[in-house]
Amino acid sequence: MKKLMIFSALSALAFVLSYCGTSKKAVKQTVKMNYDLNVKAILEADCAPCHFPAKGGKKHPLDSYAEVSKNIDDILRRVQLNPDERGFMPRDHSKLSDSTINILKQWKDDGMPEN
To answer: Which is more confident, 26 or 54?
Structure first.
């Protein structure tokens, strides 16, 4: 009887602990990036005034959803270059952080929603 109780207790413990392990995949909730909440702020902070005609910029405009979504591949290519490479953006500034670049990448991967 004692062996049966010990076996039952160990079985119950093994069952409970099997749900505590890291082998179970956690449910990952992802937040979709959108232009209005995520991308626009990056562009206003890191691409203005050069790419914002209303602020005196004379470079290719990146002040609207249509322009940014049309040029996202070139934007991503340029911000991922090293500062010493031709075409690097933002010119005369530090390279964007990996987390900022990842927001732009995720926005593209999410289908480039506007809002």
So the answer is: 54
| Other beta carbons less than 10 A from residue 81's beta carbon | 13
Contact 62, 47 (CB under 8 A): yes
Q: How many residues does the chain have?
A: 115
CA distance 35 to 51: 16
pLDDT (0 to 100) of residue 37: 94
Structural domain spans, the chain: 35-109
Q: How would you classify residue 56: left for phi > 0, otherwise alpha for psi between -120 and 50, otherwise beta?
A: left
Q: pLDDT-derived band of residue 30, with 50, 70 and 90 as boundaries?
A: confident
d(Cα 33, Cα 111) in Å, to the nearest integer?
9
